[in-house]
């Protein structure tokens, strides 16, 4: 994920009702790779080129 996408996602989460956070994250993130139980090694965004 690039910095702009992270910023946009954080703004969406900040402005969205708490009940929608899980759905929002599932919409923008395809996969989270874990190095071990506590460390994220990578995040694969869900890229949909039809959304503008």
What keywords describe this structure?
2 strands, alpha+beta, 40% helix, 52 residues, two-stranded antiparallel ribbon, globular
Give a written overview of the molecule.
The chain contains 2 helices and 2 strands. The mean pLDDT is 84. The protein has one domain (3-45). A hairpin with a 5-residue loop joins strand 1 and strand 2 (40-45). Strands 1-2 form a two-stranded antiparallel ribbon. The chain is α+β, with helices and mostly antiparallel strands.
Q: Which structural class is indicated by helix and strand composition?
A: alpha+beta
The tally of beta strands, per DSSP, is 2
Order of helices and strands: HHEE
Question: Whole-number average pLDDT?
Answer: 84
In terms of per-residue confidence, which ranges show pLDDT below 50 for 5 or more consecutive residues? none
Q: Give the domain tally.
A: 1
Task: Please identify the oligomeric state.
Answer: single chain
Give the spatial strand order of the biggest sheet.
1-2
Looking at the structure, what is the overall shape?
globular
């Amino acid at each position: 994920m690039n910095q702009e996408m992270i910023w946009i996602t954080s703004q969406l989460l900040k402005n969205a009702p708490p009940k929608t956070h899980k759905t929002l994250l599932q919409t923008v993130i395809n996969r989270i790779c874990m190095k071990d139980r506590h460390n994220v090694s990578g995040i694969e965004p869900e890229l949909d080129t039809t959304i503008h």
